[in-house]
Structures are given as C-alpha cells and as structure tokens.
Amino acid sequence: MTVPAPRVRRRPWTMPGRTLPLLLATVLLLPVAFLVVRAYQEIDADRGVLEQERLGVEYLRVLGPVTDALVEAQSAAVAGQPQSRESLDRAVEEAAAVDARIGAELRTSERWAGLRAKLEGLPDRSILDPEAVFTAYGEATDLLLALHGKVRESSGLVRDSGSDSYFLQDGVGEEMPEAMIAAGRLVDLAVLMQTRPASERTSSLSELATLRFAALQPANDLVNNLRAAVENSESTDLGASVLTPFDTYQQAVESMAVSSQPTGRVPTVDVERLSAARADAQAAANQLQPVILDELDRLLEMRIGDLDRDNRRILGSGGFAGLLLAGLVTSIWVTRRRDDPTDGGSDAAAEPTPPGTGRTVAPAAGRGPGDQLTPVLQPVGQSGDNRWRPFDAAR
Fold first, then answer.
1. Which of 47, 240, 267, 286 could bond to 262 as cystine, CB 3.0-4.6 Å?
2. Could you read off the pLDDT of 100-124 as tens digits, one per residue?
C-alpha cells in the first residue's frame, strides 16, 4: 500500500489575536489622555486668571501714591497754601510707566490717558478761586476712582474666589481710595465753609453731612474687610503686619467722625482737629496699602504654585499610565510570539526528522498470495534481517 505524505498544517491567522491587546490598550489610553489634557487646560486657565490678578495688584500699587499725592495737592490748593507738584508728578510718571507696560492687557490705557491729561491741567490757587479748584480736583479724583474700578474689573480681582484675598483686594482697591479721597474732600469743604456767605450755610451743612457719610462708610468698610481678611487667612504674618497701622487707622477714623460734627449755636466744624484726624488716617492708610498689596500678591503667588504642582502631578500620572499600558502591550506581544509555534517559519510537522531520532518511511510493500503482511516501517539504525529472523524460521 502507498503511505500518504504527511500533510503540512497551514499557519493559523493570528493577527487579530495580536492586535487585540494593542486595541484594548489604545481604548484605555484615549480617555486617560483626554482627562489629562482637559485637566491641564483647566489648570492652565486658572493659572492665567491668577497671573492677570497679579497684574492688577501691580497696577494698584502705583495708583496708591497717585491718590495720596492728589489728595495732598487738592487740600493745599483749596486752602491757598503753597504747593509742590513734585510728588504728584513723580507718582504720575511711575504710574505711566506701568500703564505703558501692562495697560494694554488690562485695557486701562484709554482711561489712564484721560486721567493724566486731567492731572496735568489741574489749576492752583493763584489762577482760580478755591471753589473752582475744589470742583476741578473733584473731577480728577472721580476719574482716579473710576480707574481703580477698571483695574479691579479687567484684572479679575473683583471676581477673586479666595475669601481672604477677596477681602484684601476689595479693601485696598475700592474702600481705601474712596475713604482717602472722601476724607480729603470733607476737610476741604470744612475749609470752604468758612469763606462762604451765611446764606449758604444750610446747603453747606447738608453737603458736609453727605461728604461725612461718604468718608466714614468706606473707612468702616475697610476696617471690616481687614478684620475679615485676618480672620479668614491662614497666614499668621498678616495679623502681625497690619495690627499697628490698622489700630491707628481705626482710631483716626473715629476721631474724624467726631470732629466732623458741627457744633455750637452757629454750627461750625473744628477744621484744625478734623485736618489732624484726616492726616492721621491718611498716614495709616499709606502704611497699610503696601502691606495689604504684599499679602495679596503673596496669596496669589501661593495659589499659582499649588496649580503648578497639580499640573506636574497630572502630567506625571498621565505619563505613568501611558508607560503601564505600553508595558502591558509589550508583555502580551512578547508572550504571544514566544508561545506561538508558527512564528518560527515553516510548520513543525513538516520539518525533517534528524537521523537516529525518529522513524523512516520504507517503500510500500504489497501482499502476495499466502504471504504475511510485510512491515512497512522499521526502526532506524536496525537491520531488517535481524528484526524478522524468527518469522522466517517459522515459515
């Protein structure tokens, strides 16, 4: 009979089995990558907001000296005292330099240009009467307060999410300049009342009461904001740094409230006492402003540092997840290649058997009449005669 040749097995189709781990890893990696990118973008946006707020702090820092110098110049002009515009001009130049650098980003350049033109055109006592000087300076201070509000709005300070930093920015960016300017106007009006005719006394007292409320309300709000910021802040340096000027300012505000009250049968105001109280309040405010701004900037910088650390954690976690998935894919791929017998080239069943280790195929043998079935296979390395000698003897 004829022994059929051994069939060579076909190489099985293994590509789907090999690509499946890679496909699963990709499916897992895509949402991880999406979450990492999304979290990074959100943190980067929050960081940009805080950086914008720091620009607002920088701008408010140079507006403080402008406010102080403008109030002093107004009081001197209304009282007819000799004045030097050196401090005001110097403060204006410093503010102009800051606006030239960051004004476009905060969208304050137009407002600053209008305020600067107004400041440069302010009159003095030698040109106009005190009433006209009071009105002109009042217009300039209104523009200055509007610029404070624009800086807080454009920088995002007015929308700050931190409790302690919100109270600080509200106090130093809104309440403090309003209180300083209103206190200066209150003293100037008390000076002007001494020169006005008796027929205008009633209207002057009404105007004085309005300015008194306008000066004391933001001053009290500033005190409340600072107290709330100290209570909500985790920093121990804030309370220690603002304690002395804070107490001085609070006492000066209380003294100003008392001294601004008209007394006597013919209501009058003690201008000298009111001026001293206003000077004490302004000096304390000048000490408080840099302390508050420094603390505010420090809080914003700390939050930026926290966001940077979060970014590094997110990127590190995403990279670690990617490495784990890549290692998993590599491990599965290498394991399948090692266990798959088809990766060696031809099928193992078709490989030739080395000599002496297997069985050889003998020529096909037929069956004759009366003959026994002739073996087809014989062990390799053994003689056929020795193998079948007992059968031959029996025959």
1. 267
2. 999 999 999 999 999 999 998 887 6
